[in-house]
Amino acid sequence: MELQFDINKEYALSLMGGGARGAYQIGAWKAIKEAGFKIKAVAGTSVGALNGALVAMGDLEKAVGIWQELSYSNVIEVDDKLMSEVMNKKQLQIIKSKGKNEIKDAIAYGKEILGQSKDIYEQGKDILANKGFDTTPLRKMIEKYIDPQKVIDSDIEFITVICMPYWEKHQDTAGTKPGLMGYEKNVSNRELKEEELVDYLLASSNLPVFKNQKLNGENYIDGGYVNVRPDNVLLERGYENIISIRLPSSGVIRKANYVEPPIIIEPRGKIGGVIEFENSKIRENIELGYYDAMKVLYGLEGFDYYFDVSICEDETSAFFTKHGREFCEMFEEVYTRRKRERLNSIIPSVIFESTKIFD
Question: CA of 292: how far to CAs of 16, 70, 349, in Å?
Answer without folding.
Answer: 16, 22, 12
